[in-house]
Design a protein that fits this description.
There is one protein chain. The chain has 94 residues and is mainly beta. It has 2 helices and 11 strands. The chain has a 7-stranded mixed beta sheet with strand order 4-9-3-2-1-11-10. It has a two-stranded antiparallel sheet with strand order 5-6. A two-stranded antiparallel ribbon has the order 7-8. The N and C termini lie close together (8 Å).
């Protein structure tokens, strides 16, 4: 099992990967970000730079929090998740 910091800020859930914030959005079909790939639980995932024209810079402005991108169902569906907001933790397992 892997544990990541879970951050609730301005009404949105974020996880921290490599000291960068990512919006956690189980309802979004596609992940995207300012980087071309991420390693999440020892698995590498390729990311789009935007989703229907929405970039990570625009997303950061919309939510009011600087973030690198959004993790959607295309990445999250590969794992079981336990979100514990009171403990500020996001546990996931392959």
């Amino acid at each position: 099992m892997t544990t990541l910091p879970l951050i609730f800020r301005d009404g949105h859930l974020f996880v921290e990967l490599d000291r960068n914030l990512w919006i956690l959005d189980t309802g979004a079909p596609t992940s995207f970000g300012a980087v071309s790939n991420i390693i999440f639980a020892r698995q590498e995932f390729r990311l789009a730079a935007s989703f229907f024209g929405l970039t990570s810079a625009a997303l950061s402005r919309l939510v009011g929090v600087t973030c690198v991108g959004l993790l959607g169902a295309d990445v999250l569906r590969h794992f079981d998740h336990i979100l514990t907001p009171l403990a500020d933790s996001h546990y996931f397992r392959e």
